[in-house]
Design a protein that fits this description.
This protein is an alpha/beta fold. About 30% of the residues lie in helices and about 25% in strands.
Length: about 325
Amino acid sequence: MKAIRIEQYGGPEVLRLQDIPAPEPGRGEVLVRISNAGINVMDIGTRKGVFASSRTYSVKLPTTIGMEGAGTVEEVGDGVSRFRRGDRVAYCLVWSSHAEFAVVPEDWLVHVPAAIPLSLAAAATFQGFTAHYLATDVGQLGPGRSCLVHAAAGGVGQLLLGFAARLGATAFGTVRSEGQKQVALERGAREVFLSDEGSFVAPLLEATGGRGVDVVFDSVGSSTLRHDLKVARCRGLIVNFGSSGGAVTDLNPAELGEAGSLYLTRPRLKDHLVGVETIERRAEALYAGLAEGSLRLRLGDRYGMDQIREAHGAIERREAEGKLVLDIAPVD
């Protein structure tokens, strides 16, 4: 089978499209014929060696890249009871989706409803599960609650705004350019501000009557987090779940106290995907929202397997606000 592999860490040049033997499912595992795979910043991190020593996301070389995909069940191993050949499925956080076939533990797979194209499932599952746990488990959004979503035109941002609206919360957003504002407004943001150098602080405080928001969802990091301290309400929560703008390395905990006894957390998706029931609950909420239109995710460019280096370059240049998709064997 064809697979995109890395044998060393580095730039896009380390990506190799290779022919390797197709894997076979063991006990409790499912062989998935991949039709589409998402391309995201975690793939960039994998390629660069960000997870080389990670306890949460252990990825060792050599490896087939890609950690989210969708397709159909080709074969099931012994003991598998929830899936059978031909089922439409999706998954995330199991590396090796950038290949024609992948072996996935049964407990990490979910069924994809007929109403959801496999290309959308491949693009939305990782970011959708992320948005769902942030909105429900961590942010505890609901009526009377408010939040700020940074990078609101990005994949997780778009879905976070949608979940906030579904839960009855008031959401504000920040974006990097004027052209991205409309995307965030269409996804449910009440108001959208530019994020440059804290320019969102004054208008957000004005919009909330000086109170600030209950929760700030920050996937940017160093260029926004200290400004977040100014817009979170007293005893509010700041959720730093990414660092696309650089890691925060010099925050003194006393700053949280000075800003109003704030809470700061740095969660990871894997710790919020414990157990089949939890994963299925997140999948049900995500796919139901996508099917009815209350959740929307704009797909960006689509690439063939021989274009993977170009796709990585596009992510690093941050050209697209839509989710990039790798077409492996399109069946939609």
